[in-house]
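Q: what sequence does this backbone want?
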């Protein structure tokens, strides 16, 4: 065989047409099992690596999906990617990952690559934030795009999948109030982010409905990291005991981890002295001590739903027929003329850190 094995070589060795080899590579079901097995054996034997981009373009349609991500070190990104990959595994598509950092030139270069190569049939933008303007430009060029969550208000006319942050925060604080707490602190995330604003609104709403006036001394800024949570918690624990809150609602699970660390340092018992609730339900939250009571975000489901929505666009199904899975808390009904917004439910997961022994509650059960 020549140094570079081609799809024509595989077809000749298998005694089939190039189209049949292409159907096997694209995981099409309409191939005889024995023929498929023979082709796959030859592909492995010849160490053939298909050019998925070229084969897609040759067929008139790319079989690649672009996934635009922020830093891969963000704690929830792997969970979302898992859901995306699970959805894609059921299709003939493959994924291309575009990582965006904070440099404007890098964002511009990534945009240029996506537009000029035309390798991807569609794009998922995971928490694009300040990159949203680049995503909007791609959308204006006709690329099917779905945004997964975001730091800012989603661009108009681009489908979006995320969670109802306000209702999740409301549920968390209502839970603490039902446990008897009235002195409840909130360590927020970066308030430039839409989700942090919504979680703060949910915190305030729950307090106000219970006739509790939020204490500005107990509302501190964090940055979604353990370090940020630890710094903010130290300020609370430095207050005289009679002026401290008896409970803390953390904007993220990593923030809550920092609070636990600061409590150990200050000799504050969780939940004996301070009840604690986080927001995320990362896998590690079930194993730290005390186990963290938190609001579960369905990250994997978020990735799956976004991918299903993007596939519906690629199959030219009208987006207006896509079901809105959940209205945001207190929102009016969505009309068909509005962009698709899929809100997934959060869920309260009760563990030891809040001092309660009851099982998990859904948002519907909590209000």
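A:
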């Amino acid at each position: 065989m020549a140094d570079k094995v081609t799809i024509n070589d595989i077809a000749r060795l298998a005694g089939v047409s190039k189209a049949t080899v292409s159907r096997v590579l694209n995981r099409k079901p309409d191939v005889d099992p024995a023929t498929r097995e023979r082709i796959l054996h030859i592909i492995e034997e010849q160490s053939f690596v298909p050019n998925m981009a070229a084969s897609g373009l040759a067929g008139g349609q790319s079989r690649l999906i672009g996934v635009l991500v922020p830093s891969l070190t963000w704690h929830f990104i792997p969970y979302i990617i898992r859901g995306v990959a699970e959805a894609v595994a059921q299709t003939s598509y493959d994924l291309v990952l575009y990582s965006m950092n904070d440099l404007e030139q890098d964002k511009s270069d990534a945009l240029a690559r996506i537009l000029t190569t035309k390798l991807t049939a569609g794009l998922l933008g995971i928490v694009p934030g300040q990159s949203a303007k680049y995503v909007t430009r791609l959308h204006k060029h006709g690329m099917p795009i779905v945004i997964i969550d975001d730091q800012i208000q989603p661009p108009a006319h681009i489908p979006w999948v995320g969670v109802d942050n306000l209702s999740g925060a409301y549920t968390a604080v209502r839970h603490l109030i039902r446990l008897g707490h009235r002195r409840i602190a909130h360590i927020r995330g970066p308030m430039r982010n839409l989700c942090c604003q919504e979680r703060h609104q949910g915190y305030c709403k729950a307090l106000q409905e219970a006739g509790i006036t939020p204490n500005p001394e107990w509302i501190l800024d964090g940055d979604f990291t353990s370090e940020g949570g630890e710094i903010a918690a130290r300020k609370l624990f430095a207050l005289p005991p009679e002026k401290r809150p008896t409970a803390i609602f953390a904007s993220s699970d990593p923030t809550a981890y920092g609070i636990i660390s600061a409590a150990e340092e200050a000799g504050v018992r969780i939940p004996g002295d301070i009840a604690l609730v986080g927001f995320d339900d990362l896998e590690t939250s079930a194993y730290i001590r005390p186990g963290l009571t938190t609001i579960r975000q369905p990250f994997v489901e978020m990735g799956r739903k976004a991918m299903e929505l993007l596939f519906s666009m690629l199959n030219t199904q009208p987006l207006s027929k896509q079901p809105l899975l959940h209205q945001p808390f207190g929102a009016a009904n969505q009309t068909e003329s509005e962009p698709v917004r899929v809100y997934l439910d959060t869920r309260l997961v009760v563990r030891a850190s809040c001092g309660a022994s009851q099982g998990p509650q859904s948002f519907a059960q909590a209000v």
